[in-house]
Amino acid sequence: MQFMGHSPSTENPEWQTLENHVVGVTERTMHHVRYMAVPGLSVYARLTGLLHDLGKYRMDFQHHRLNWNPITGQPQKYTEKPVPHSDAGAKFMQGLLDMDREIASELPFVIANHHGRLRDVDALSTRLSESEMREVEALVDLAVLDTPELADLLQSELPALPLEGTERAFLIRLLLGALVDADRLDTEEHGIPSKVTLRGKELGTPLLDRLEAEAVNEKLDMGLLLDRLETAQATFAAQDAKHPQPINVLRREMYSAAAMQAEQPPGFFRLTMPTGGGKTLTSLAFALKHAQAHGLRRVIYGVPFTTIIDQTARTFRDLLEQDGEFKVLEHHSNLEVKETPDGQERQTTAPDLATENWDAPIIVTTTVRLFQETLFGTRTAQLRRLHNVLGSVIVLDEAQSLPAPLLRPTLDALSFLVNYAGCSVVLCTATQPALDERLGFPALSNIRDLVPNAARYFDELKRVEYEFRITTPTPWADLAAELNTHEQVLCIVNTRQHAHDLFALLGSYEGNFHLSTHMCPVHRKRELNTIRQRLGDGLPCRVVSTQLIEAGVDVDFPRVYRAMGPLEAIVQAAGRCNREGRLGTGQVVVFRPEDHKMPRGDYEVRESLARTALNENADLHDPEVFTPYFQKLYGQINLAPKVKIHSGELEFQKAHAELYFEQVAAAYQMIDGEQVPVIIRGFDPAKVDGLLAIIRDARYKGQARDAWRELQGYTISLYPHHAKKLAQWLVGVPELEERARRLGVEAPLIQQWPTTAQYDDKLGVVMAFGDDPFTSH
């Protein structure tokens, strides 16, 4: 008998045998886990591939899913009906291994969940109880005829994996992600070969030869991109030599010092540099050189704020890509509308396809994508990226922004990647959190500094003086009057409501600007471009902003005001003052507002500790000032959330170790609750109308990719309780509803701020939130 894995497609008139599919998936799965340093894992990877589609040997599957008759070896029309297949291999391994919570559950989890999402151990047991072991054993007999290797593996003793607790949980995620991507890629090569070409892969050569060549090319890319970066740096140095700037000398010193550490063994690294010191390019140089030195294949740059991801990706593209090339993948929270099942989307470009599995030399993404989705997510579409994190240098920009209430599971994930997955991790910031063994984080026992004696550079790059007004509250009216006495000044406040109220007092004049996430990104970008232009031309420029301007936004004011907040936020704000060192000394004023309400939780605790530190005359120019600050912070809050299990709760690490995957994912939330995307129709209505018309009329989502991406620039995100307050103005998007009706799918959960509602040219969406302050991020 001959069994089939996939039927002919529009692009390929041939059938794919089940043997061919299983072997292809097995070889790809092995390739995907090659960076893992876990003895015995290769046997698990092979069994995963060989058994993942065992259920397709069911006659019902061949008949009713594929319209194929294995006995005659010919196509035959049957009535279509659902037939499960991912349970069979899992059921067989469950019986073979006597699966329980503590041991031997890796393979059943991986095989059973390679379609759908990663469920917990109880759900898996319930599902497999519906399968009959005798029937599954008969399927194994059929599979062995196609792949005799399977018999040899099953007759051998399965090696015990040396991982326990949460390490096992991460291994299950990793194996599942490797299998899912292998399955999707093999299916794609048969059914949609045009996608293989778009991915830059070759068809027609033996699979193992292709996989080996891809592995070699990945490593060669690191050297190529490093050469381009060093060439660009040499050009910058030559240009600076014509008009020398002392600050650039210090930047090059730090860049060289970090690059010299690249030969050190992989592990944890710390890059502490003063704001404006050039840490983005310094960290990139170390990452590329370290990857080249140790045979790593990718750099993943994780940033906390979507407001700076575009800027970072653009910088990398300008330096590393040439015309027609794709080397830098930018992957963040774009508008994503589910219109087809996972694996059946019709992407039409290399970047689109690379977002599926992060197959690109440089990945620029958000920490939400990296941690909440890829490392702690449960959807197979999220987990299929995970194997491409292996063998990477992970740079975490603005590491102080890692949520403290999630710190222990976050470090747990990073430790797994460093200890077993061939990764190095770089924690990068001007305000390093106190993360080392001395302060209760044993995973960081050997963290190494990339710039020795960082305090020297903080001292030499001292460009501001601080003035503290935190004892007596400053009335908003007095502050507005003071801001109006300065030609160029930036004031950063803690909440959007404060930004709105202060700007109203300042006055909506030509040289006055407001920035908050109540303005769509295109609007903010327009204002920032105007701000930079006016600063450069010496024109009046007064800006009131939320924290969105604090980290990574390149602006340079002679005077900055910062409402009392977390200590690291104050120092980040100071990085927008006299950034290029053109003044003798810039002025930073830290004030306590009259209506000093703090967002609750972590932010509020940080502000309280900052106030204490400043009352004790903390020196904000000394990077060591943050060690006691973060030590106290981590001592006052829970560094991991509780996980709700049925009617009770478990400690996070225990719940993860006991394989409650769905419940753990629900607890690990960097952003509280799903945000509601709102399209702003009133800012450039003609442009938004045109983009929505393209999306409405596109035959499939891939055709409208550029329109979706551009539409993100006219969208804001609201927390559900804020969207509820705006419910009388928020309405559905007619074009998207019409598209959904045509496709026979549910309309996306996207709202619009219609042209009939107020969208102010200075303030964006206008709404008073009273006693419900919330931050900009």
Question: What does it look like?
Answer:
Helix 4 (86-97) packs across helix 7 (133-146), helix 20 (476-483) packs across helix 21 and helix 28 (685-697) runs antiparallel to helix 29 (705-711). The chain is α/β, with parallel strands linked by helices. It is globular, with a radius of gyration of 28 Å. The model is unreliable at 99-103, 341-345 and 768-777 (pLDDT under 50).
What layout of secondary structure does this protein have?
Layout: E1 4-6, E2 16-17, H1 18-32, H2 41-51, H3 59-64, E3 68-69, E4 74-75, H4 86-97, H5 106-112, H6 121-128, H7 133-146, H8 149-155, H9 166-191, H10 193-198, H11 207-242, H12 246-259, E5 268-272, H13 279-294, E6 298-303, H14 306-320, E7 328-331, H15 350-357, E8 362-366, H16 367-375, H17 380-383, E9 392-397, H18 407-420, E10 424-429, E11 448-449, H19 454-460, E12 464-474, H20 476-483, E13 488-492, H21 496-506, E14 512-515, H22 521-537, E15 541-545, E16 559-563, H23 567-574, E17 586-593, H24 602-615, H25 626-636, E18 642-645, E19 648-651, H26 652-657, H27 661-667, E20 676-680, H28 685-697, H29 705-711, E21 715-718, H30 720-725, E22 731-732, H31 734-743, E23 751-753, E24 759-760, E25 764-765
Low-confidence stretches: 99-103, 341-345, 768-777
Largest β-sheet summary: 7 strands, parallel
Distance between the termini: 60 Å
Chain-averaged pLDDT: 88
**Count of extended strands:** 25
- What coarse outline follows from CA principal-axis ratios? globular
The value of Rg in angstroms is 28 Å
- Residue share in helices? 40-55%
- Overall structural class, as computed from helix and strand content, comes to alpha/beta
- In the sheet with the most strands, the strands line up as 7-8-6-9-10-5-11
Note the beta-strand portion. Answer: 5-15%
The total of helices stands at 31
